[in-house]
Fold these 3 entries.
Entry 1:
Amino acid sequence: MKQNPKIPPDEITPEHLYLNRRNFIRAGMLIGTAAATASVYRYFNPEPLLPAETDNSQITAKNTVKTTNERLNTFEEITNYNNFYEFSTNKQAVARKAKDFVTRPWTVAVGGLVHKPKIYDIDELLRFDQEERIYRFRCVEAWSMVIPWIGFPLKKLLDLAEPMSSARYVAFETFYKGSSAYEGANLPPPPNAMQSSLAAGIDFPYVEGLRLDEAMHPLTILATGLYGKILPNQNGAPIRLVVPWKYGFKSIKSVVKITLTDSEPPTTWNLAAPDEYGFYSNVNPEVNHPRWSQATERRIGESEMRPTLLFNGYGEEVASLYNGMDLKKFF
Amino acid sequence: MNDIRFYKFLLSLNALLPLALMLIDWSRGRLGANPIEFFLRATGVMTLIFLTVTLSITPLRKIFGLNHLIKYRRMAGLYAFFYAGVHLLTYSVFDKGLGLRAIAEDIVQRPFIAVGMAAFAMLIPLAVTSTNGWIKRLGGKRWARLHKMTYAIAILGVIHFWMIVKSDVFYPAMFGVLTGILLCYRALPKITKIVKSVTAIKP
């Protein structure tokens, strides 16, 4: 190779400076890429929202109904692992995304085939006698928890509305931007953190439904709190349904509308995938999800899988609702 | 340290950092309420990331002339195999308690498990034949043909991921699109060549 004689010796970078610069660039690349990798990791595994960061207002229960003696899941577990697709499809990210969801003012409209339709202010519902209900909670994704809810039987509210004899079903609707307005509604502005149907992959507003006898069952409650505190945003503040013998997605969150109907109401997951999520969606280890088994579940906080119980262990109380029904057909 | 060794170190650092962070978070109870699910999901995604990286090397060399990237392809491929192995092991230990019968039943009953298992089984011969010795033994052409199986593995991986999500198809779709683009880049010239040769015969 021919050397260029025109570069004077004093312009050639001394070797130690060249090496220094190279080491500097390399250190920068190591730190820069590692920081980027770590922040991508942190995006998917966000820090949990600590109990101190949630609204810790108390709500008093008159009495406690225990349906199980199993270990309760911790407040931190219950409030940092949530399916609330309006905010995020990442269960660990919902708590932070929903943090600024203001749930006042709030109204729940009870209407449809009832003699006494009424729009309730949330504070009126909070003045109902509240009970603590310790229930198992089984998600369709094969995980479960034990949760000390606070709330009151849905029956109490439905009785006040006096269902007509033609009423056979109850339809529920979750708060969502723009679509939740009804005459007489008094609802907060939708939080910016709520995402679109497109991003979530399911239609909003989220809708759910029960047969009237399921809705009137003493185990079915409207929950207003958990662990003695008002319901945290990520768990469906300020009021949600809890139906402990059905998969968790039936227990619709942040309810704004309850409508009695004479025909089976549409339900969000059934609309999204009718062959995967039925109207009934009773917990049943014999009926598998088309793509995964429902025979076992992982209790949050445990590493081993445990067997799933028919009707989530509430068969004694609810099996009679389904006498003569083929549970495989009406899954 | 020469450049090749430095870049291999850089690749390894970023490949193993997520695993290290997950293990640290797990040990201090900060991997979320369902650490096993998170770990399974993350190791699966890492496998897909490294499969995609492995498959991008040839297009990047051809389009941008980044020929030196070939020196890191084997390492990227082996990290895909590594994460797939950790993924499978986690499932076997925590979901199935290392019960071979339970795993066999799962393969039969749950199609997405069968798809994942098939993809892992196909990764094994590729990892085994990744050495210089095996390249020589098989001969460059046969070796290259065998390793084209990476495309099939990536496609199976995307299907496996797609089958387990409920409605949040964004990430499986993203990997699907990436794999599709990479596959088209390699396959289209060949298809047009075939089409041209066929049309050339016609008249």
Note: Chain B has nine helices and no strands.
Entry 2:
Amino acid sequence: MVAALLLIRSTIADVLPDDRADVFYSKYSGGGMDITGYSATARAKITENFAVEANYFIDKVSGASIDVLSQASVIKDERKQKSGTLEYLHDKTTYTASYVSSVERDYISETASFSLSQSMFGDLTTLTLGFADTHNTVGENNGTADVPNVAWVGHALSRAYSGGLSQILTKNFIADVNLQVITDAGYLANPYRSIRYLDPLNAKGYSLASQVYPDTHTSTAVQVQGKYYLPYRAAVTALYRYYTDTWGVVGNTYELDYTHPVLNKWIFEGRVRYYKQTAASFYSDLFPFAGSQNFTARDQNLAALDNTTIGAKVTYAFLPDGWRIFKRGTVTADVSRIRFNYLDFRNIKDFGLPQYTPGTEPLYQFSATVYQLFLSVYF
Amino acid sequence: MHKISTLLKRCAMAGIVVASTALAAGGDASGPAPSFTLTTLGGQASGLSAYKGQVVMVNFWATWCGPCQQEMPLLDQMYKKYKPAGFTLIGVNVDKEAPAVKELLTRKPVSFPVLLDPANQVSKAYHVDEMPSSVIIDRKGQIRYIHRGYKPGDENDYQDRIRQLIRE
Amino acid sequence: MRRSSLLLLGALSGTLLLSSGCSLQPWVKPYERDRLADPIMAWDRDAISSGYMDHIRESREGSRGATGGAGGGCGCN
């Protein structure tokens, strides 16, 4: 349900990367949800200075997540995402333009983005500037998973500005700082999520009501990371990201990565990530009465939470030195285990009266596993 | 306040000079080519002095440099073509370790001499500021042209310069 | 909004000063970039995989933005 803000993740402004094709399979399992994804990507240089990339992604969602209170039936949906990117290298500058379109039965998101990456100071410093515009159309399915009835409820516009500076500090050490400011306006809530307020007249002890979100939102995120080449052939990465927004959410991300290759055939990678956020100012798990605040939310994404991820990735080069037109061929498996811990969002789907009075239900926790498997060929 | 503006002015002027020289992929250069002695993969000593009187192109390359790999076969062709006319090409490899160089040259052999500069002394002496770099030296041992980087089509540029110097 | 634009301005002036030469020479030479050119030193070896993880995070967290990295590599050309 989130805008596919596909901003350019990584650039090297000296030569355009090798031509490459990937087929990708992913599975997310956790919190009552099962999401299977399939994707194909291809990039090729049309001339030495000009490259194109295209990607097609399908996500199939099924399950009954914790927050689906208004819908009695199970969710079953499909998301199709298409994206195209153009890259142009002139001297020490790379210009990138891309377009992403993500379509679901009840949500359409389109993003157009542009970025510029400039290599300078003996190729030790890289400056990146980017900007993206997103348009989202939000709908609500009032029917069932098998017999849908989607009503379009609103639009949202989003603009993102980003700047980054990467600096090679020593022969073994590179550091990078990124800043991104995003402003959105329009319909910004998830129509399937509701708030609850104390209601002694209701059998459950509480009643549901629609969320009321502000129609603007501005966020600022700053990330610093460093990558260091150890005395033997391996690399360690440390990352910290600070996030703050006008809704009162403050998020801190810490990540540590270790990459260890073996000969020219294997690359092993292990990662640990810890994320903690404070709740939005208008969020509450249980409001005292209807209309107690101008803005109200009970969306679990805006709750106070933390999550810990442990991941491992293995890449095996089945064609380490190439074969005919292929320069290299690899197959990669990646598994991540994420433990989500909510500090002020209670599990009201599985717990309630008479054992738990409203506001005393156990806090929600769940674990999810993410599997990725992909085949990559370079040429 | 005055000191800061003078500093900024000086930096800006230095910047314009540096930027304009850096923008050129290739430039006419001058001065005697520093002599050097390095070893081949086989362990034999060789250097610039072995090719006195010839037009020499010293190409600085590495196994980890993509554009270097791209130009190698073209450099090989160029070497074979102009060798009878008194031209030689020396590939100076800057890798820190020899095994990767040996492995690459076994898979993709070249006929021109390859010398190893793991301590980067020759790279420093020639002020290599881009990878790959090709330094073209005339029959009198003077540096005449430095080509920085490689983009397909640059080999035509090399050939023009070499032909010009062969005729001298 | 003000603080972030000041930060960006600071970063830009910093790089302009650095790139103008100013008797400060690049301290890692192009022939010393063997380690930085190693694929394990890339910020992101598989953009499709990291893009997917970012999407998962954004769907379940209240944060977004500033992910990714630039620079490094062989510095050739």
Note: Chain C touches chain B at residues 17, 19-23, 26, 29-34, 37-38, 74-77 (CB under 8 Å).
Entry 3:
Amino acid sequence: MGWSGDACIVGIAERPSERKFHGTPTLTIEQWAGLAADALTDAGIDPEAVDGLVCAGDVAEASLFLPATIAEYCGWPVSFAERVDLGGASAVGMAWRAAAAIELGICEVVVCATVGRPRPPSPATRGPNPRAVFGASSMEWGSPQAEFDVPYGNVAQNCGYAMYAQRYHALYGWDERGRAKIASDQRVSACANPAAAFYGQPITVDDVLASRVIATPLHLLEIVMPCSGGAAFVVTTQDRARDCAHRAVGVAGFGERLTHKTPTYAAEMPRTPVRDASVRAFGMSGLAPADVDMVQLYDCYTITALLTIEDSGFCGEGEGLAFVDSHDLSYRGDFPCNTHGGQLGMGQTGMSGGMSHVLEGVRQIQGRAGERQLRRHDTAYVSGTGGVMSEQGALVLVGG
Amino acid sequence: MSDAAAPMPKPRPLPTPVSQPFWDALRDERVVLQRCDACDRWVYYPRARCPGCLSDQLTWTTVGGLGTVYTFTVAEQPTAPPFADEVPQLLAVVELTEGVRVSTTLVDVDRDALAVGLPVEPVFDHGDDGLTLLRFRPRA
């Protein structure tokens, strides 16, 4: 592939997940700049050295020209700027785009950030925000989703993921405890992460299955809880990484695959695009699934993590429930999966929820995970998922 | 959210010049699909070009509208506030005989009878606005 894997993640910043934000609301561009400052401080890099930035679509003060708006606001003339529009796969996409730009020699210090705290109310009066009613579903005229899916009530995320789960079980059997165990094992890790919204609140498989059904077969405790937060990381060259404060975490491999927006039009439910993305990521890195010390898998729902375990090659198709049943997924276990608690345990901090998986991989590899620190922590596999299994990315991270 | 005071109307399809024949046919209680003259692919939803070969030679063809349930969910909580009156929503993806898949809801069915693979037939749900939605029920 001609990929050296030399670009490194060297600094991170993450706001704690809060179900109700207790601070003073700030503009999202202000949050972005604050996260950037903290991640650069963590790395030990002078903000004046920044020459690249990657944002997602979550900065609310501009709908277009977002990278330029951020460059201007932060006072950075940049040689590389990207806005990644991959929903929950954005953070993984940001990491490899930044690493690729660095490998190409376009830039040396790239800040990637996602915001997730509330904004103060605008003094201008506005009508109801359609995003508040229809989630990520498009309501624009001419959008296929608005015309052929939304009128039937096929709206937002819950029903799409539920339909993936329904078909999965119809094909592979009805052991719901396997799905529930993902949530309860990850909660063990959340209980070792003071930044998690569910810190100090363990749950059992029975608790998950006893929680109310939102969309069959998914229960409340299999679905992420929306929270406030924010996250950022800094990517730089191997040369610069030597002078940074923490262990360099190389982006050794990556993959990305997009197939549909609405899962009605997925090629082969319940198979998912991360199949292709993971093969590429592992291939580039020279590692196999069995080689990694941990996995940090996008987990907006239990079914998302389950399908990602299968389609990333950690077990065969249809073997995921048995795999989960025979492994301990907590940070103490033999298959550490989402050692920060995942988004199921952390709470979903908007677009920053997807970034939490990247940051936890970095934190573990750098040996900074505190109570939940893994003993073997040199390599991590990270996934991102946007839409309803619509777009997925994979990273293999390796400590320097 | 904060706009609960003014209930939003249920979202309805807004046909485009390309999709209009599909909605016209549903109003006449027919299901039509586009077929690609270049690669013989069935196309749904309606498009200006074939998803794959990108040919613009697509021919509207009347089909039987029969299919099977590819997957489904029973939403116990509204998927969006305008659908609150439909809870439990019997949301489904139906695979038509031609192989294309359609977002829909199931009607005239006991929720316990729902299953992947259930054979279904079309139900033409005529609205006051002149638009007809394509729903499905178990085949008799």
Note: The beta strands of chain B are 31-36, 42-43, 58-63, 67-75, 89-96, 101-105, 119-126, 132-138.
